[in-house]
Write a structure and sequence with these properties.
By secondary structure, the protein is mainly β. It has a domain of 93 residues: Deoxyuridine 5'-Triphosphate Nucleotidohydrolase, Chain A, CATH 2.70.40. Helix content is 5%, strand content 36%. It contains one helix and ten strands. The strands form three sheets. It has a four-stranded antiparallel beta sheet. The longest helix is centred in the middle third of the chain and has 7 residues. The protein starts with 6 loop residues before the first strand and ends in a 28-residue tail after the last strand.
């Protein structure tokens, strides 16, 4: 495992919140915290854009992915709508999380709540090689989802 230095700016009104952090030794994602002023209630079936109070400068050749937290999903049915959301290397706006309540009851998001994970990953740029035919494989054109059936 290697480390990568990423610049971060915290909005002045959010300096009371913890920076994104790894909650265990081998965690892949850092927890993002809600930078809401007051409680935000998300009714079932609704979504809410939740600010984190941070701006990051992801280095070229990397992206930051915003992913759901499994505990929120299992306990409350809360997920990230566009999972994984991408923070591109040239984006400098505030990182925000689009949460959706897929559960049966309203969910309250309070200031400082851990609402999502942030994973920084390398990015590969594609150069298309247009062909009339593609190399054959064992699956070949077996159909969408066919490997999940017996």
């Amino acid at each position: 495992m290697h480390s990568l230095k990423v610049q971060i700016r915290v909005r002045p009104q959010c300096r009371d919140l913890a920076l994104p952090s790894y909650e265990s030794e081998h965690a892949a994602g850092m927890d993002l915290r809600a930078a809401v002023e007051g409680d935000v209630v998300i009714p079932p079936g609704r979504r809410e854009v939740v600010p984190t109070g941070i701006h990051i400068a992801v280095p070229p050749g990397y992206e930051a992915q915003v992913r759901p937290r499994s505990g929120l999903a299992a306990r409350d049915g809360v997920s990230v709508v566009n999972a994984p959301g991408t923070v591109d290397a040239d984006y400098r706006g505030e990182v925000k999380v689009i949460l959706i309540n897929l559960g049966d009851a309203p969910v309250t998001v309070s200031r400082g709540d851990r609402i999502a994970q942030l994973v920084v990953c390398p990015v590969v740029r594609v150069e298309w090689d247009v062909r009339d035919e593609l190399e054959d494989t064992a699956r070949s054109t077996g159909g969408f989802g066919h490997t999940g059936t017996t």
